[in-house]
Amino acid sequence: MVRVLVVEDDENMRTAVAAELRGAGFEVVDVGDLFAADQALRQGEFACAVFDRKLPDGDAIDYVHRIRVAGSAVPVLFLTGLDSAAARVAGFAAGGDDYLVKPFRVAEMTARVVNLARRAGTGRSTVLRFMDIELDTARRQTKRGGVLLTLSDKEFAVLEHLMLRPEQVVTRAYLVEHCWDAATEPVANVVDRVVTRLRAKLHAPNVIHPVRGTGYRLAAPGAS
Which one of 56, 99, 183, 193 counts the least CB within 10 Å of its CB? Predict the structure, then answer.
């Protein structure tokens, strides 16, 4: 499995990010400070490292700058609440490859990690496939039977999470948590409405099946 390092001192955030990446097929090592991150990076190769900026033992951009000077090429994604232009510039100047401001959608974070791992030449493909459906998380494109589809951001996010877990039941609560902004309060039945539009755009045969009282499952046509 492709390995990703997550460095975040907020335990709840670290757990959520690590769980999302594991669900996307990565092997995740998660730590809470720069000392533990340094130990992990010395002991094995990683396709990507995800750093919070402000950690108990220092600013991650200083650490990333040091490992870049020392020759490390591990792709780095900064996850941080520091959203000024100066903070972004500092992150890239230190050797960061990508920068995502909190709060963020975990689906976008996962897509960015996949893209960085792919660019490093060690990651899995950015294209998810189920039957004749292809979803490219890097290009944000969806095709069925080779035909390009036009999906909204929410439709794309819902389909992505279903395709990451084929044949599994994905609850409505999970989809709301992972596909809607943390600052937005979704209205009633919002998931069902998005899925209805998504199923129409995917056309027949239908592969998104409702699971009564729970959520949805991506499965072959006619599956119960």
Answer: 183
Q: Kindly state the tokens that stand for 6.
A: 């997550």
How far CA 136 is from CA of 130, 139, 140, 147, 156, in Å, comes to 12, 6, 5, 13, 10
Phi, psi of 136 (to 5 degrees): -100, 110
Q: Which residues pair with 149 in a beta bridge?
A: 142
Task: Tell me what the pLDDT averaged over the chain comes to.
Answer: 86
**Calpha distance 66→43 (Å, rounded):** 17
For every residue of 190-212, DSSP letters joined together read: HHHHHHHHHHHHH-SSP-EEEET
CA–CA distances in Å: residue 137 to residues 24, 111, 177: 12, 6, 19
Read off the pLDDT of residues 86-122 as tens digits, 9 standing for 90 and up: 888 888 888 999 999 888 888 888 888 988 887 765 4
